[in-house]
Design a protein that fits this description.
With about 500 residues, the protein is α/β, with parallel strands linked by helices. It has a domain at about 95-405: Alpha-Beta Barrel (TIM Barrel). Helix content is about 45%, strand content about 10%. The protein has 19 helices and 18 strands. The protein has helices at about 5-15, 40-55, 60-70, 85-95, 140-150, 170-185, 200-210, 215-220, 240-250, 270-290, 320-335, 355-370, 390-405, 415, 420-425, 435-445, 455-460, 465-480, 490-495, and strands at about 75, 80, 100, 110-115, 120, 125-130, 135-140, 160, 190-195, 225-230, 230, 235, 255-260, 300, 340, 375, 380, 385-390. Strands 5-16-15-14-13-10-9-8 form an 8-stranded parallel β-sheet. Strands 7-6-18-17 form a 4-stranded mixed β-sheet. A two-stranded antiparallel sheet has the order 1-2. The longest helix is centred in the middle third of the chain and has 20 residues, at about 270-290.
């Protein structure tokens, strides 16, 4: 006969359930942290316009130069294409200010723009921290699919960009196709991918159309955006990326034009100089899009990056990274464009204290600054060279704390709870049983599941597990999730048309 559950056990079970009210949901308004003054914003913006008008860009593809000159661009005496300030400001005025980034499940739709803050992924790690050996190895297509299934269940990772490169897929067409397929099969959240060359765009979107029910379906509610880097710092266009962007625009795929200058290498060493040239290059990407189609959905992804000036190596977990990307978010929002910045690019090789320090500082800075789409926020390790399953789980919980800080403190008559103070101080002397306390317990407080808050004796009785050990256990649980987001017959049709390398679905 089954033993009756004790009242204490029932209470613990009830408290273990997810809260009825999420105290720290994604999409909250940021902008509380302002590393730049209004005067500094104006100075940096004016300097960026001066760079574009006087120095200009090199290596401009013919199709772009022809269109740009027709819209007012000039070729200077050095053969560089320059954008007059008036031309840039016309493009800003006509640019997309807000758009919906769709999930295949509408519960995951993201309204990009304003001061709403969302965290997602990015990166192109070539190594994965193996869950068993705890050593880095080359990333595989199966890793990518497993990461996709994992992120499908992490509430604070609002969209998923392929976080690693399937190094076991050598053919570039097969790589782009199978990357997109893994995203399609593993999650119904919004996703993002990259394209090696422009001719791969149509086949991928045709595959998306097949999954959605027919030609043109993807363009109705595009659930995938393209990560493109059309600017090669300092101040050059990359022809392949420009052509990819134009191909995406023909099919209605939103674009995240990512510019990643590096302090002291592809940008001046002073942080202000990095911000000015980085802003100029991201504006050049904006002009590139809007002279072909004004108002096209583009995320203004200005990512100023930091190198160690002693060694020349990229350093993603620095205080300077936190400061620069928070300032980038503030600049983009001041101009009124959907902003993209980067955080959580730790230099740590393992999920350890260094990882927590670097990820927490950079994620909080970008979130409080109001970055709309904050990339690289989960899973990434080793200065973007590696990615970790355990880090994804730990980062997702860290982002709950960040969202809670962004939410701030509501001050009103109800929350001040004045009426409960006099009865308590003249009666029981504590607020534990007050109705406001019970409501506030779920509404205002976040309770972590991976981080440990037990007393030392209880922690010891439960196995003395550290943070990483608990994350490993959670990863194993989550990877039991095998979503069924592709109809069996549709999957068969896709396999007839494309060289899909992941094992086939079973009925």
């Amino acid at each position: 006969m089954a033993r009756r559950q004790s009242a204490r056990a029932k209470k613990h079970a009830e408290r273990a359930k997810p809260p009825k009210i999420n105290p720290c949901p994604p999409g909250q308004p940021g902008g509380q942290y302002k590393p730049l003054s209004e005067l500094q914003i104006r100075q940096l913006y004016d300097e960026a316009l001066r760079i574009l008008e006087s120095i200009g860009l090199d290596d401009v593809p013919d199709v772009l130069q022809k269109q740009a000159v027709a819209h007012g661009a000039k070729i200077n005496s050095n053969g560089r294409m320059c954008y007059p300030a008036s031309m840039v400001e016309r493009c800003i005025a006509s640019a997309c200010k807000e758009f919906t980034f769709y999930g295949r499940d509408p519960r995951h739709d993201i309204q990009v723009g304003g001061n709403r803050v969302y965290f997602g992924t990015g990166g192109a790690a070539v190594q994965t921290l193996d869950r068993v050996t705890e050593e880095y190895r080359s990333s595989t297509l199966n890793d990518l699919y497993d990461f996709t299934r994992l992120v499908d269940q992490l509430p604070n990772v609002s969209w998923f960009t392929r976080c690693c490169v399937a190094t076991d897929v050598e053919d570039i067409y097969e790589l782009d196709i199978n990357t997109a397929y893994a995203l399609l099969r593993g999650t119904n959240k919004p996703v993002a991918t990259s394209f090696t060359i422009a001719t791969h765009v149509d086949p991928v979107i045709d595959m998306f159309d097949m999954a959605l029910g027919g030609p043109g379906k993807f363009a109705e509610k595009p659930f995938c955006k393209a990560h493109i880097s059309p600017i090669i710092s300092p101040l050059k266009y990359g022809e392949d990326a420009v052509m990819v962007a134009l191909a995406c625009m023909k099919r209605g795929m939103p674009i995240s034009n990512i510019v990643a200058t590096m302090t002291g290498a592809t940008a001046p060493g002073p942080l202000a100089g990095t911000l000015s040239i980085s802003l100029a290059e991201t504006l050049a990407a904006l002009v590139m899009i809007n002279i072909f189609e004004p108002g096209y959905p583009m995320i203004f992804s200005n990512w100023p990056l930091v190198i160690d000036l002693r060694t020349g190596a990229f350093r993603g977990g620095s205080g300077e990274m936190a400061l620069l990307n928070a300032a980038s978010a503030q600049l983009s929002n001041a101009i009124g464009l959907p902003s993209g910045c980067a955080s959580s690019m730790t230099d740590a090789k393992l999920p350890d204290a260094q990882m927590g320090m670097e990820k927490g500082i950079t994620a909080l800075a970008c979130g409080l600054a109001g970055g709309n789409m904050i990339y690289e926020s989960s899973g990434m390790m080793a200065s973007l060279l590696g990615v970790s399953f355990e880090a994804f789980v730990m980062d997702d919980e860290m982002l709950s704390l960040v969202h809670r800080v962004i939410r701030g403190i509501e001050v009103n008559k109800q929350y001040l709870a004045y009426e409960s103070i006099e009865p308590v101080v003249s009666g029981e002397g504590h607020f534990i049983g007050q109705p406001e306390t019970m409501l506030s317990m779920e509404r205002d407080y976040y309770y972590p599941k991976i981080a440990d808050r037990e007393e030392p004796a209880v922690w010891k009785d439960q196995g003395s597990l550290d943070h990483l050990s608990r994350a490993k256990h959670k990863v194993s649980e989550l990877l039991e999730h095998h979503p069924d987001y592709l109809d069996y017959e549709v999957d068969k049709e896709i396999r007839k048309s494309y060289p899909i390398l992941l094992p086939a679905k079973t009925k």
